[in-house]
Amino acid sequence: MNGFSLQELADALENKVTRQALHRYEKGEVVPDSEKIGWLSKVMGVTPDYFFRSTKVELGDVEYRKLDKMSSKEAVAIKEKTKEYLSRYLELEEILGLPTEFVNPLTDFHNVTSYEQVNQAAKALREAWDLGLGPIFNIVELLEDKHIKVVKLKVDDDFDGLQTYVNQTIPVVAYNTKKTNKPDRIRFTLLHEVAHLLLHFGKVTEKQKENLCHQFAGAMLLPEETIREELGQHRTKLSPQELGNIKKQYGISMQAIIMRAKDCRIINEHYTKQLFFFFKQMDWRIDEPVDYEGVEQSNRFEQLLFRALAEEQISMSKAAVLNNQPLAEFKKQQLIF
């Protein structure tokens, strides 16, 4: 999770534990005593309970959204950070006896290869989740309510997001706060990963698959009926002001709105290229002139934690462990009634 080599970990421990001793711990030849476990926990940013956790977490095949070739070291760190968070989350749900069963509403969408199919799939998902045609408030909370776990990671810039299944049945999507650092980007990235999770693609290239997942995310955020109401049936020009207003209302970037308008044939490909050239000239490709101010977070884990604590299903010290905090730090945050 921290990307340490054995020697780097020994250095971080100021050689209180040698590289050779750490190697023997890894091999299971020697068990560290409680003092050394305390040192290891502090340096590696976990509680001592981490080393004794029994909740089973097995990740399935992991698909990443990345810009460049990711090193195996980075990939392992991402997987382990994801597993660490999920082990605490799943243990809490087990304590409360909560169901974690997920039903995929898009099982009928097989051999997906076209825009028309992903557009229809997005419409079907909105209907299955009773979302109507309006803006979706808080995608993170929506996914968590639908039993899709959302993991927030802070890792190397090459990584955008990932999706996989835990223990073969629990869907997981994750995003990188270093790369996906604005609410509209979080929303688009998560829905892109949802497309990977729920759709079964046909014979398409990786580039084509990524484009189809982009189109699915755009269709989820801005359904075809909705964008036609906002922009009209056909347009020869769009103003930055109207794109900005739609962004603020629907939580989708101005550039994604442009692509959505092209996909819906409201604007043609030539004008789409002109708009993107204009965005490049204005230096808006990374930082658009209008921000979406919505909230993208879920309090579900925290809510479950304090529910278990209030119902005395866990102790204060166990709650701190599940929240990956020292007990003293956890206690400071509590309100006593």
From TrEMBL:
Listed Gene3D superfamilies: 1.10.10.2910, lambda repressor-like DNA-binding domains
Entry's family note: Belongs to the short-chain fatty acyl-CoA assimilation regulator (ScfR) family.
Parts forming coiled coils: none
Xref: InterPro entries: Cro/C1-type_HTH, IrrE_HExxH, Lambda_DNA-bd_dom_sf, Rad_response_metalloprotease
Pfam annotation, one family: HTH_3
Protein name per Swiss-Prot or TrEMBL: ImmA/IrrE family metallo-endopeptidase
Organism listed in the record: Sphingobacterium chuzhouense
PROSITE patterns linked: HTH_CROC1
HTH cro/C1-type domain span: 2-51
